[in-house]
Amino acid sequence: xxxxxxxxxxxxxxxTYTKRELAGYLTGLAGQNIIYNIIATGLAFYFQSVIxxxxxxxxxxxALARVWDAINDPxxxxxxxxxxxxxGKCKPYLMFIPGVVLITTILPFINGMYAEPNDLHAISLAxxxxxxxxxxxxxxxxxxVYDFEDDNGVKTTYAVVSTTGSWGYLKDAxxxxxxxxxxxxxPTPVVVYKVNGDEYTLVEDTSLAKTVVQDFxxxxxxxxxxxxxxxxxxxxxxxxxxxxxxxxxxxxxxxWGVTSLMTEDQNDRAKALTLARAVANVGIIGTLFTMIAPxxxxxxxxxxxxxxxxxxxxxxxxAVVMTVxxxxxxxxxxxxxxxxxxxxxxxxxxxxxxxxxxxGNKPFRQILISGILRSPIQxxxxxxxxxxxxxxxxxxxxxxxxxxxxxxxxxxLKILILVIGLFGGMIGFPLxxxxxxxxxxxxxxxxxxxxxxxxxxAFIFIFFKLAHxxxxxxxxxxxxxxxxxxxxxxxxSLNVLQSVMIADCVDYEEYNNGxxxxxxxxxxxxxxxxxxAGIASLISGAVYAxxxxxxxNVALLNNALVDGHIFRSEFGSYAAAMFFLISIPPAIGMAxxxxxTLKYAxxxxxxxxxxxxxxxxxxxxxxxxxxxx
Length: 629
Description:
By secondary structure, the chain is α+β, with helices and mostly antiparallel strands. 64% of the residues lie in helices and 7% in strands. The strands form four sheets. Strands 2, 3, 8, 9 and 10 form a five-stranded antiparallel sheet that branches. A two-stranded antiparallel ribbon has the order 1-11. A two-stranded antiparallel sheet has the order 4-5.
């Protein structure tokens, strides 16, 4: 935008928000995004790895939810645009929805367990016999003698077959590894025996014993629910997740839509949306939910709960604590914001009519298509936690950070370099977008960040391959930090520009057709985010299936890492798949996203003219209303 255009934007006096209103809005946005990240990053893990819902059921639940979002988001946008209250059309939802979202966020976590721990774990052998795995006891530096009692009360003494497994090594009440006299970790002892009729035989073949144990581990040694109980748990998961999505949308669309009603000044609007995007990233602390929850497990173990049930209660406890805190923050937005732009549309529209409005608005249609093409960018969030846990921490942060008996400050500093690069770009750089908007055309900035942003994303995988899979050197981490900074800066700037340009499209629609579809248009932004996550999930699933990072193979990988294997050097195909996912598909998506907006239909000069005329119209209409009263 030229300086003359920027000056013209301020030629008419605009009604705008106060600092207090903006601070309250941003506080609420931070809380809402903490809630989003608890569900977005924690729920799939909780469903599959804590209460053991089958992976195929989880996939169907999340896929069907995305289909429903395609209907629910525009429907909610329509409802918002039809709302008429003394507070406005967005503020009422922000006042009353946080308490409802609090409840629906907790509901998915209080489900029952699809599989329960079983004291006697049976595994079918190829010989049509059944092998059993039972845990032995370890006391006073030695394994206890193990007695097996059959149905007739006859006891047989067996030796113990010691193996390691996904349960790792023995730990004390504080979670520290128990050591033998030589300072080695003590593996969890188990007994493996097979049954042939009434004959119980100890499996002394170590290879066979370990195979049985690995099969047991891949099934987690739990008894699965069947019949109505199984259906009930899956139904609870599906209904509670869809219900969360619906109530979250009821708050999300007004929360973003109100930005175009808080001010008539496009520079103030850009400032608010820029800060909103930055603060939304603060909500990333919700992603720590998965890693923090196990810290609460000891509370419930002390009460006599087993490993599985105590972990479930730990997740429920943290879900309640974090959601209550975040909901209180979310509530601040409803109490603080004020709608300063009057949007009293005389006519209301049906969902079908609103779809026509959305796709009839050319600049909005271009942004919508561009956002969908950019869907693979969501892979960065989906894959990041898995990549960090395996590549940098070998799936055991505690062991890696305390390697050699002392705190591994070198590893921490290397990862910190990477984190500073990513979040410096994603959060810090977008703060300059309002200044850039005053000097350059928004559509040109948008296309610049999509095309140029594709380059650092592509080079992430290229550098990984050039480094032969080992980037955990000082040079490697610095190079990666620079690439992540550039990629994050592009990604964060595009998020800001997308929101600002959608708000401009609302002005465009009001100017041409006399209506302000804030709710419907910002429901499009919500829909882009959710659809993008769904598409990204399909891409990651396909790539993981191709390289075999799925199901039993993951359990066997975890076992190998417990046994001392190194992920970075020994599981190259899995590591390459993860780096590929956060690099090549996002690069392709970024490049494609520029195509719909290369000839963007709403220039900044035209938008400035439209906005100034709308301000005059509102002023005239306001004076006429006062005269009539």
